[in-house]
Amino acid sequence: MSLLQQRMGRTPDPGDDAAYQTLKSRVRERLLGRIDPNILFSPHDAGVMALMRREIAYLVESDPTVAAGLRQAYITRLCHDIAGFGAIQPLIDDPGVTEIMVNRHDDIWTERSGRLGQETEIRFLGEQQVRELCERIALPLRRRIDESNPILDGRLPDGSRVNAVLAPVALNGTCLTIRKFMRALTVEKLQEVGTLSPAVTDFLRSVVLSRCNALVVGGTSSGKTALLNALSSFIPADERIVTIEDAAELMLQQPHVVRMETRPPNVEGRGEITIRELVRNALRMRPDRIVVGECRGPEALDMMQAANTGHDGTFSTLHANSPMDALARLETMVLMADSGLPARAIRQQVCSAFDLIIEVGRLKTGVRRILTIAEVARTTDGEIETYELVRYDPKTDRLTPTGRPSVRVAERCAWAGVKLQGVT
To answer: pTM surpassing 0.85?
Structure first.
């Protein structure tokens, strides 16, 4: 029994045994002759996992070299190692864990309820095991991760986000990060946890119904997608929505939703489909609304032009530290499109395109909050201004109206025949 197992008070892990490693190689070889290799890694598919367990159980129980008392332990570990996530499978199965961070084979951390937890005592046996897991994750995603392509970014079948970086690009050893898929939070749930107040909810409902164009901004894991999912619940059921994402995370509940996802280049460097191409194509699909999961490059120009040419109700998320920073980033991304537009013209179009910016953030306690809701003001001398309608008060842990009346949202509501409710 290893020192780690003694500290954890567990029985010896069969994965530590050289005989187990030999058995694993033998079982994997036999499985490849019995099961389609494309479904070997399907840990979120209950039917496939049941099939794998039956096949593995049959092979283990018919192997005379395995003692009867070790068969169940071997079967469980083989299922994890061959068809699951190996050593970190318990973390995958733990509903309290929201993110898993493998810094190297013996340095594994988790996030729980928005807070980085303590280092876990779970360990892979070595660098090779982490690398093998990354390669198995990449296989059903139709991606490749190796020396020539050492970075993998993708979405698991259940919607979880996965990022892997192989050594030696990752200096301490192969790094694997899995952000587990969380079911979309409802508006009621966001009110329950304090992210939304009833007044702000009513205001945002007016924003969506009046077809304002809005950006949800904030840092990594600040709750941008969760809020965007909640806002989408206000979209009328008779509207056609096109969603565009790098990795599909939006879970809209409307009946008429077209979901599109980017595609990376193949091993020959061909076949890439970018967000910009999908935004352009979406304009030909008769959308009532376009929702871009995250804007991060030259697609900002096409999204901005769509918002300015009749596709009202456009939503997107953006990494930024404040509403003004978000607008500055948007300008920079439009410049990346090499449109040849002068800076003044870009600012004017950005100002015309987006009515509202909603900033969200994750507090030190791990909870997510809306930090501010700001309107975009008309340009003055070529500059863009924003002014806050709602501001988060850390002393009371509440969203507080600033007292400044809405202008652009009020105009949109009047034009659309929607009653403006809530904070103004």
So the answer is: no
